[in-house]
UniProtKB/TrEMBL annotation, chain A:
The chain crosses the membrane at residues 20-47, 59-80, 107-130, 142-159, 165-182, 203-223, 261-284, 323-347, 359-382, 394-412, 474-492. It comes from Amphritea atlantica. InterPro entries: DUF112_TM. Coiled coil: none annotated. This is Putative tricarboxylic transport membrane protein. Residues 18-443 form the DUF112 domain. Keywords: Membrane, Transmembrane, Transmembrane helix. The lineage of its organism: Bacteria, Pseudomonadati, Pseudomonadota, Gammaproteobacteria, Oceanospirillales. PANTHER family: TRICARBOXYLIC TRANSPORT PROTEIN.
Automatic annotation (TrEMBL), chain B:
Residues 8-145 form the DUF1468 domain. InterPro entries: DUF1468. Keywords: Membrane, Transmembrane, Transmembrane helix. The keyword Transmembrane helix applies. The keyword Zinc-finger does not apply. The lineage of its organism: Bacteria, Pseudomonadati, Pseudomonadota, Gammaproteobacteria, Oceanospirillales. This is Putative tricarboxylic transport membrane protein.
Length: 513, 157
């Protein structure tokens, strides 16, 4: 393991890779700050750039952007009460009231310290958890992989929120259907191309990711008329001091510690991710607080700000565990990174840390650097970076559209891809209006090909019988977890609804936490 | 009868699954493949069935609440349609008039559609931005950007 850490360290400290961390953090912070654009869009916008880099540098850049975007989202949550992404919605609960009390500087600093601690705890845990899990998963066979992919896909659906499970499952199936378009890798047969030469290679990952996450997100802001809203001018004189008193540090230190560990564990679960971690950590902290402190939550509580900030960064790191060790992404953003790795010809999974130790370890090490960059460089520069928020939307939106389109065009030099992007964007807009989540579709698309290969192998080995699903204990265990993950939440909802209809005395805590 | 977003979505996916399943039958198989446990149609058929079953489940369990109705009156569809048409035209323009000119025109049209009317602003942002990007791509990164076919036909290659 020590060898690996040194390999990673030597790759990560290469000047170019360090530059990628810095550039990634800055670009991520800026994109993350823009309301409507979150880490997924930020990482998607980076894909074309990473195509020209070697795998380690590319993934390091993406990881930096991911971190930066989560941090940038917190900044806009605190300063203008407009969360850049879902995982920083909770940050606004207490961050914005603090800014209104002329303590924006303190809130930003606390957010940065909490993010740093969360990210550091996450990176350390990843350092130990990932190789251990990877070693265990080396014994996995194709049946286990197939089961794992089922688990990954069902988990994303199960964690997608109340009343959204069926919609998320449908989107997963939709993603799997898109993955079947083009030439079948095993038989060579063309599927669903309808005679078009442009579809023989299938729908490209880059095109799908850019259309659904970059283009659609920007177009949605236009659709909702948000481009007309003038962003509040951030008054730098009202930022206040960035220093925390000793008492305040004492007050938030246990919260940050608890939420970091908690956030990491939630992040490791496939499908859970940073948003759920931040909501759960906020709820947990409020439940742990004394009755008097509880009243402060939502009105500018430091603990209420520290908890989600530590948890979302720790969870962002945690979501790399299933990606790097099992090849199963823990969130939409890591799903895009999985796609990028596959495009490099690297198969993430247990063999990653044996076959490509430089990629495996340098990503982990550079995550730590990413945290440092956010704390040392980004925090003092926040007053200046936030000035970019003032760029008028009518100028900014066409530029982001341009980057999304040319990002795809410059890889294929085929204008058919631009038309295809528009078609996918139109479909994605209607799906979003119908409240269908997009991340499960991308996950289904990315895992579709791998799943088909593993299923085919498993079926051929077992001579067409589905018995492989329950004959191997490990496969059975993973499939059972998938079933539990999928069935338990709706059942709990059902029980809760029944209790509620039985009597009004059953109080269900459904506050903003 | 209230038709909600879930009903529309469920119906859409049910139709998609039926369409997908129908066309899965057109996938060519290798001789003898039909006796194999796994072939090119296996996964498409399974997905069509799965999609159909989940769509039906969504249709049957959808809540009939008025607030879940699809409301489209607060959205600016006309502007989005114009932007998307602009993107398609940009795609065609890339082939005909080349990267640099197409980018400048795309940006000017985009700014204008979104409400920016100052001529100075339209030019001051789009031209330096497009030239800057063109310079990075063509000169620094050495990416070949084909000249527009129009110029090739007019002035020769």
């Amino acid at each position: 393991m020590l060898d690996g850490i040194f390999t990673g360290l030597s790759t990560a400290v290469m000047p170019f890779n360090l530059l990628m961390v810095v550039v990634g953090c800055f670009a991520g912070t800026f994109i993350g700050m823009l309301p409507g654009l979150g880490p997924i869009s930020a990482v998607a916008l980076m894909i074309p750039i990473t195509y020209g880099l070697d795998p380690s540098s590319g993934i390091i850049l993406m990881a930096g952007v991911y971190y930066g975007a989560v941090f940038g989202g917190s900044t806009s949550s605190i300063l203008i009460n407009a969360p850049g992404c879902a995982s920083t919605v909770v940050t606004a609960f207490d961050g914005y009231p603090l800014a209104q009390q002329n303590q924006a500087g303190k809130a930003l600093a606390l957010a940065a310290y909490s993010s740093f601690t969360g990210g550091t705890v996450g990176a350390l845990a990843l350092l130990f958890a990932a190789p251990a899990l990877a070693k265990v998963s080396l014994s996995f066979q194709s049946t286990d992989y197939f089961a794992l992919m089922i688990l990954g896909l069902t988990a994303v659906a199960a964690f997608s929120g109340k009343g959204q499970v069926l919609k998320a499952l449908l989107m997963t199936v939709f993603g799997l259907m898109i993955a079947t378009v083009g030439t079948d890798t095993t038989s060579g047969a063309t599927r669903f191309t309808f005679g078009s030469i442009d579809l023989i290679d299938g729908v490209s990952f880059l095109l799908l990711a850019m259309a659904t996450f970059a283009l659609t997100e920007v177009v949605m802001t236009v659709l909702k008329g948000e481009h007309r809203e003038e962003e509040e001018q951030v008054d730098m004189s009202k930022l206040g001091s960035m220093k925390l008193s000793r008492e305040e540090i004492k007050e938030v230190a246990p919260t940050i510690g608890r939420s970091s560990v908690f956030g990491f564990l939630v992040g490791v679960l496939p499908g859970a991710g940073a948003t759920i971690a931040s909501f759960l950590a906020y709820g947990l902290e409020r439940n742990l607080a004394s009755a008097k402190e509880k009243l402060k939550f939502g009105k500018g509580s430091l603990r209420g700000l520290a908890a989600p900030e530590s948890a979302n960064n720790a969870a962002s790191t945690g979501s790399f565990v299933p990606l790097l060790t099992l090849g199963i992404p823990g969130s939409g953003t890591t799903a895009i990174m999985l796609g990028a790795l596959i495009a490099y010809g690297i198969q993430p999974g247990p063999r990653l840390f044996l076959d490509h130790p430089d990629v495996f370890w340098s990503v982990i090490i550079s995550m730590y650097f990413g945290n440092l960059v956010l704390l040392i460089l980004n925090l003092p520069l926040i007053p200046y970076i936030s000035k970019l928020l003032v760029i008028p939307r009518p100028i900014l939106i066409p530029m982001i559209l341009f980057f999304s389109i040319t990002g795809v065009y410059l890889v294929s030099f085929n204008t058919f891809d631009i038309q295809m992007m528009v078609v996918i964007t139109v479909i994605a807009i209607f799906l979003k209006l119908l409240e269908f989540p997009m991340a499960p579709m991308l996950l289904g698309y990315i895992l579709g090909g791998l799943m088909e290969t593993n299923l085919s192998r498993a079926l051929v080995i077992s001579d067409g019988s589905l018995a492989f699903l329950w004959e191997r204990p490990l496969t059975l265990a993973i499939i059972s977890i998938a079933v539990i993950v999928l069935v338990v939440p709706p059942l709990l909802d059902l029980v809760r609804n029944r209790n509620r209809t039985r009597g009004p005395e059953v109080a269900v805590n459904e506050g903003e936490g | 009868m209230i038709i909600t977003k879930d009903h529309i979505g469920g119906m859409g996916f049910l139709l998609l699954s039926a369409f997908y399943g129908y066309y899965a039958g057109d996938i060519p198989l290798l001789p003898g493949d039909e006796f194999e446990p796994f072939h090119a149609r296996t996964v498409p058929y399974a997905l069509a069935i799965l999609g159909g079953v989940i769509s039906l489940a969504l249709l049957l369990t959808a809540e009939r609440k008025a607030e879940k109705r699809l409301r489209l009156n607060n959205y600016d569809f006309a502007l989005v349609a114009k932007l998307l048409v602009l993107i398609v035209i940009f795609g065609l323009a890339l082939e005909w008039i080349g990267f640099l000119l197409a980018t400048v025109l795309f940006l000017i049209a985009g700014f204008w559609l979104l409400g920016e009317r100052r001529t100075k602003m339209l030019l001051m942002v789009s031209v330096p931005f497009a030239v800057g990007i063109w310079f990075i791509l063509a000169k620094l990164l050495d990416i070949y950007l084909a000249p527009g076919q129009l110029f090739v036909q007019l002035f020769g290659g």
